[in-house]
Specification:
19 helices; 6-stranded mixed beta sheet; alpha/beta
Length: 519
């Protein structure tokens, strides 16, 4: 019977194994939501890369694993982007090629205990560097950051309040590295166990000493989720009917989902008047989301607009970070062909220029974000710094209704709430809608993709500032410092190594043949 090593000798078999191994962590995210699986999911990938026969093969193992991870994480894009989904996965997967090389460099062969200790710091730092690069909006943003898989784990949410999603990511990778060492390197068990203990101590220290947000008040916020409705007029009518049911419920704010209004309200004063009438009936201001060509400037914008009893309040936020290919085509002159193979944006949406904190009445300050923007920790952090009491996300994943996308998207709000110590409302057109408290804990029911309803949530308000809001992305900065220190140490080590002595040429006899020693 052939051994696993013989089976992996085939380049294509090995590449397939790397892609499958790279895809495994996706099971920790919604919809499967096997959060505990994240703690072991990287082990097969690490074991494969460390066994690579050459550094070049380790680069390929990293690339193929990254391809598998990106394709599995974004598989729900296939019906829209078709073959271009594979192109995106291949391009982003290349970010993990150096990580595969690092795994082999630090853990290949029979590494010393010192090398294992270095690996426990350098490999998680390398992973964070990858997450930092792909978090750029033009590369798709930080969707599928490894730490985000822990959105329903209270200790991990406490970690996020200290170091953002990046801190759980770092510790999860370190845990996987330690387990891989325990599996494959028996002689290095002591540093591996020490690494496991260090992860446990770090998590426990955060649990004990990190500040907890103190709640001092509550507000009633209603989410209006119309469900799947065809046509902007029909959708508005259903939202209007559902909102009218909130009359007499004593709510403080009503939130509609992304693209809930398909017309510029400045060009449709009749709709603005109907919204103002709803605000008077319910006694609450209404935050809608307009997806339309602007009346006062060129282009299509996605905008959060606040409407009160007297009409438009003047508070407006234009979406700043747009979905690549869904709302604009990066380098359209080069990649515009994507519109011919899928449902990519036929016309680029226009970008807003600044974030906005709105006064929703009664002293309530709200910080709106639109859809994709909830993946970016810096946006919610900025809103918290600017004085938002409640973070709001207006979203629509109706295009991906039967996929994992709606639940993945809703889970991100738990992390943004925990990071900032501010409650967050995730309101969608077609589900999943959800609300989380200042510690990231779930409040009330999720509204699934089959729901067409309203739901009122009793949302606790919190005061104080989390360490993450105060100190920002310090885990990313620490990771880059660790990588830089390792590179410098490796360079210094190479310089200290003595150069090999040149071989003296052999003396030749009169007949031209090499002389033998002793003759």
């Amino acid at each position: 019977m052939k051994t696993l090593g013989h089976w992996l000798a085939s380049p294509w078999r090995r590449s397939t194994a790397a892609a499958v191994s790279g895809a495994l962590p996706v099971l920790a995210f919604p919809a499967p939501a096997l959060w505990w699986f994240a703690y072991v999911a990287l082990v097969p990938w690490i074991l494969l890369a460390r066994s690579a026969p050459t550094g070049k093969r380790a680069l390929r193992d990293g690339w193929w694993g990254g391809f598998g991870f990106m394709l599995a994480m974004h598989h729900w894009l296939l019906p829209n982007l078709h073959v271009f989904t594979f192109v995106i996965a291949a391009l982003l997967g290349a970010l993990w090629a150096p990580w595969g090389w690092l795994v082999r460099r630090l853990l290949g062969g029979a590494p010393s205990g010192r090398a294992v200790v270095v690996a426990l710091l350098v490999l998680p730092s390398g992973w964070l560097a990858i997450e930092l690069v792909r978090s750029w909006q033009g590369l798709g943003g930080p969707w599928g950051v490894l730490g985000a898989s822990q959105w329903q784990v209270e200790p991990a949410l406490r970690l996020a309040s200290v170091g953002g999603t990046w801190l759980p990511s770092f510790l999860i990778v370190a845990l996987n590295v330690a387990l891989a060492v325990l599996v494959a390197l028996r002689r290095a068990r002591v540093p591996a166990v020490a690494g496991l203990v260090a992860v446990g101590v770090a998590a426990s220290a955060v649990w004990v000493w990190s500040p907890r947000p103190g709640t001092d008040d509550h507000v009633e916020i209603a989410v209006v989720q119309p469900g799947v409705v065809s046509g902007a007029d029909a959708r508005f009518a259903r939202e209007e009917r559902l909102t009218r049911e909130l009359a007499g419920r004593d709510v403080d704010l009503i939130v509609w989902g992304e693209s809930s209004v398909g017309f510029d309200l400045a060009a449709r004063p009749d709709l603005a008047r109907r919204l103002a009438a709803l605000s008077r009936e319910t006694g609450a201001e209404i935050l809608v989301n307009v997806d339309a060509r602007r009346f006062d400037r060129p282009g299509i914008y996605k905008s959060s607009v606040l409407v009160g009893p007297e009409g438009l309040t003047g508070d407006r936020y234009d979406k700043m970070r747009l979905v690549p290919f869904g709302e604009y085509i990066p380098a359209r002159s080069l990649l515009g062909w994507a519109t011919s193979v899928g449902k990519a944006a036929g016309e680029d949406r226009m970008r807003g220029t600044r974030q906005v904190v709105m006064d929703a009445g009664g002293g309530l300050r709200i910080g709106p974000m639109v859809c994709f923007e909830t993946a970016f920790p810096d946006m919610s952090r900025n809103l918290a710094e600017d004085g938002a009491d409640v973070l709001l996300a207006q979203s629509s994943t109706s295009t991906f209704q039967q996929s994992w996308a709606p639940e993945q998207h809703a889970s991100l709000a738990a992390l943004r709430a925990a990071e900032t110590g501010r409650p967050m409302v995730h309101a969608t057109l077609t589900g999943v809608s959800a609300v989380y408290g200042p510690s990231g804990q779930r409040i009330g029911p999720w509204l699934g993709t089959d729901a067409s309803t309203t739901q009122v949530y009793d949302v606790p308000l919190a005061h104080g500032t989390t360490p993450y809001v105060r100190y920002g992305d310090w885990p990313l900065q620490a990771a880059l410092l660790i990588l830089a220190a390792w590179v410098v140490a490796e360079a210094a080590l190479r310089l200290r190594r003595p150069a090999p002595e040149p071989h003296a040429p052999r003396a030749r006899t009169a007949h031209g043949s090499p002389a033998r020693p002793g003759r």
